[in-house]
Design brief:
Number of helices: 0
Mean pLDDT: 90
Order of helices and strands: EEEEEEEE
Strand order of the largest sheet: 4-5-6-7-8
Largest sheet: 5 strands, antiparallel
Strand content: 35-45%
Distance between the termini: 48 Å
Shape: rod-shaped
Low-confidence stretches: none
Oligomer: single chain
Helix content: under 10%
Radius of gyration: 30 Å
Number of strands: 8
């Protein structure tokens, strides 16, 4: 937080010692009227993504979801860094694709494209 004290009469910037005694006159004009300005700052970082599912009502309950997609910013769990992720799961065509890119460097840090039936032991399906 930053504090700025100025004389209300002439606008002269006063040092912070004037803050403790409000009756100290301004060295330039002699006025005891002061304006005190407190300044604070903060920052906000925005991230966005879109994700969804495509369902087919012809299938039973657990098999209705035919496609799952995710595209956008995702926070990496290992170190908290934000990465750009694109993931698609297509059950009808037996496809899995995931590409993770570092947005600062543009470098692809992970790329996996394979048959969905071969994509085992990842994420929540890992053996513990």
């Amino acid at each position: 937080m930053e504090t700025e004290i100025t004389c209300r009469n002439c606008g002269k910037k006063l040092n912070s010692s004037y803050n403790s005694d409000h009756n100290t006159p301004c060295p330039k004009c002699g006025s005891t009227k002061q304006d005190i300005t407190l300044t604070t700052s903060d920052s906000v970082e925005l991230h966005d993504c879109i994700k969804g599912k495509v369902k087919d009502q012809r299938y039973p309950s657990k098999k209705k979801v035919r496609q799952i997609f995710f595209q956008g910013d995702d926070q990496r769990k290992s170190d908290g860094k934000w990465m750009t992720k694109e993931r698609s799961i297509d059950r009808d065509n037996n496809k899995y694709k995931e590409v993770v890119t570092d947005p600062e460097t543009g470098k692809v840090v992970h790329h996996c494209e394979e048959f969905l039936s071969k994509h085992k032991g990842h994420g929540s399906a890992k053996k513990k």
